[in-house]
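Chain A, query sequence.
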Amino acid sequence: MDTSNLMEQILSSDNLNRAYLQVVRNKGAEGVDGMKYTELKEHLAKHGENIKEQLRRRKYKPQPVRRVEIPKPEGGVRNLGVPTVTDRFVQQAIAQVLTPIYEEQFHDHSYGFRPNRCAQQAIITALDMMNEGNEWIVDIDLERFFDTVNHDKLMTLIGRTIKDGEVISIIRKFLVSGIMVDDEYKGSVIGTPQGGNLSPLLANIMLNELDKEMEQRGLHFVRYADDCIIMVGSEMSAKRVMRNLTKFIEEKLGLKVNVTKSKVGRPSGLKYLGFGFYFDSKAHQFKAKPHAKSVVRFKARMKQLTCRSWGVGNDYKVKKLNELIRGWINYFKIGSMKTLCAKLDSNIRYRLRMCIWKHWKTPQNRAKNLMKLGIDKDRAKWTAYSGHRIAFICSKSVVNVAITNKRLASFGLISMLDYYTKRCVTC
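Chain A, predicted structure.
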C-alpha cells in the first residue's frame, strides 16, 4: 500500500467529521488550554482551515498534555496525559487513517485497543491454549510501559511503514510535546502519554515487535496492550522463555521488565485482565472466573452504592446498582460464577433492605409499612420498636418476609444471577 500521501486522507472532510464525532462522543476532561469538548465545534468552525494548513506545512504545534494521576486499585497511581480537545481531534483523525494500515500487520493474538477485539477474546484464546496442554504460564509485566517507550525506536518502526513526511513529523511532535504538572512544564524525552487518542496504536506498533518475536519462537501467547502471558508445557520451558524474552524486551525494544511482578506459575495462580483461572475436574479443563481481587473491588463499590448515610433516594441507589451489575456481568460473562452471583445477590438485597429500613425512620412509620406489606400487627410493632441495630433487624425473617426478593425486583433491582444466566457463555 502506498503510504506516501496519507496527510490528504487524514485531512479529508469525511475523516475529519468522523474524528470530530468520536472526540465529542468520548467527552473527556479539558487539556491545558481549558477548552471543553462542547466548544470544539465552534473552535473548528473558526480555525479548522488554519489547522489543516498548519498540518500540511508541518507548522502545527501540539500543546503539552495535562498530567492526571489515577489511583490504582492495588495501590500507587497511573499517570494519564490529557491532551487538549484540539489535539485529541487531530490525533483521532490520524489514528483513523493509520489503524487499517497497521491492522494488516498486527498479530492475531493481540487484542488490546483494536477494532472488533476485546479482553474476553484474549481470555478465551488463553483458555484454549491452556487446555491444549500448555499449563505453565509466563506472566511478563512491563514496568511503566507508556512512560518508557523510546521515541527513536518507535519512530524507526513507524518509518518502515509510513512514508509520508508530514504524518511522521506530526507524530514525532505529539511524542515530544511535553507534560504540564502543577503548572510546571516538563519535557517528554521518552514515553507516549497514556490517555491520548494515538497512544494505543503507537503502543501496539511497538509491542507488535514482541509479538513477532514470540511467533518466531513458536510460542503460545495472548497480549492485551502491555499485558502479555505466554503458555508453555513445562516449568523449565517457562523459565527459559522468561529469561530470553526479558532480554529481548530490554535490549531490543528498550523497555523495562518489572522483575518483582513478572513470574512463572500455574493457571490457578494467575490474574489476567481481572480474571482468575481454575481446573474443573468434572469437565477436565481449565476455566475462567472473576479473580478474587475483582470480586473485592465489586463489593467495595456495591457497599458505596448501598451506604445508609448516602443522602440520595433508594430509587437512585437501585439505578446505580443496576449499572454496576450490568457492567460487571457483561465483562465477566465468559467466566463461571453462578454461585458467586447468588451470594452477591443476597448481599445486595440485605444491604438494600437496610437502606429501606433506615428510610422509614421512625418506629411508627416502620410498623405501619410492615403491616402494609403483610406483617401482622404484633410482629410489626415488636420489630419496629425493638431498638435493635438496623443490621440485626434486617437479617431477621420479618423484614425478609415483608421486603421480599420479588418486591425488590418490582422496585427495579436486577438479579445478578438472572442477568448472568441470560448472558453467560459458559453455562
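The two ends are 45 Å apart (CA to CA). Residues 64 and 133 are 49 Å apart (CA to CA).
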